[in-house]
Amino acid sequence: MATSVQENLAKKNQEYASSFKEGDLALPPAKKYTVVTCMDARIHPPAAFGIALGDAHVIRNAGGSAREALRSLVISEQLLGTKEILLIKHTDCGMLTFGNKDAHAVVEQALGAEAEKELEGLDFLPLGDLEQGVRDDVKFLRGSKAIPGNVAISGWVYEVETGKVREVK
Question: Cα dihedral sign for 126, 73, 9, 107?
Answer without folding.
Answer: negative
